[in-house]
Specification:
The chain is mainly α and 174 residues long. It contains 5 helices and 2 strands, in the order αααββαα. Helices cover 41% and strands 8% of the residues. The longest helix is centred in the middle third of the chain and has 20 residues.
Amino acid sequence: PDLSCCQSELTDFCTVNTNDIRQYLVSSGVKTCALDPLPSMLLRECLHTLLPVIKRIVNLSLTAGNVPRHFKEAMVRPKIKKDSLDHQLFSQFRPISNLKLLSKVTEKAVGCQVTDYLNSNGLQEMFQSTYKVAHSTETALLKVQSAILNAIDKQERVVLLLLDLLAAFDTVDH
């Protein structure tokens, strides 16, 4: 896109307030990573006390523009791609990374600010369905179906090319 259309530049991330941190923590679910210093259920029970500390840690990362090394650590567990596959072959598994809760909260804070910037400057891709509110695989399929039906109504030709790229991810050296 023409960058002159942007009203502002996203040069730094803003600090987030206590309510934002609380919302990110609540929306992240109750999953706990084995690397977390305390279970998420306990964190939620002590949230009032821990919230200022969590806010400080997240805001230090945002203002420094740096992700702490320990935020990048994850528990990686193998998950079989399909139950019907051979459980003895390593290539039949894909790695699942489980991040620490503070890492997820920081990621959510960054994600919200980037999304807000893209939306306010009209930089969102119109046909993108991933990571957009009120867009999903279902809405993407409905859009494709609607376009096909409209073309048929206008007696136009329709060609639909579907690619299964799932196997392409098997070539990545995890």
